[in-house]
TrEMBL record:
<protein>
    <submittedName>
        <fullName>Uncharacterized protein</fullName>
    </submittedName>
</protein>
Length: 117
């Protein structure tokens, strides 16, 4: 399966480039959610949160918290799709370097297939 080989390569890379570990873990949690393995995905998100705190990666930590809430039904669909409205209004024609520590983040919600919702 092609996805598994991509994850295998990403895992190898994350051992060399440690900053990639949180993103790899977030994508892997999403993969397990799509595969209807909710418990596995939620455990991975909890582990990811600990890793992010240790690495001081506030962006992925916030994203992991958001995904956990969204995927467990703790966020209304209005908040889940809020990123679209904000990004359409504020970011259409300009791009600025973002300092995560000094800005409000617009968190993208990974969409889940209808059969999981």
């Amino acid at each position: 399966m092609e996805i598994k080989s991509i994850f295998k390569d990403a895992k190898k890379i994350s051992k060399i480039v440690e900053i990639a570990i949180p993103r790899y873990m977030l994508l892997k949690a999403y993969y397990w959610m799509i595969r209807s393995q909710v418990n596995v995905a939620m455990k991975l998100l909890k582990k990811l949160q600990r890793v992010c705190q240790k690495m001081e990666n506030k962006m992925i930590y916030t994203w992991a918290l958001h995904c956990e809430k969204a995927w467990s039904g703790g966020i209304s669909s209005l908040h889940t799709d809020k990123w679209r409205e904000i990004s359409e209004n504020k970011m259409l024609d300009k791009w600025d370097e973002i300092n995560v520590n000094n800005s409000n983040m617009i968190i993208f919600t990974f969409p889940l297939p209808k059969y999981i919702l």
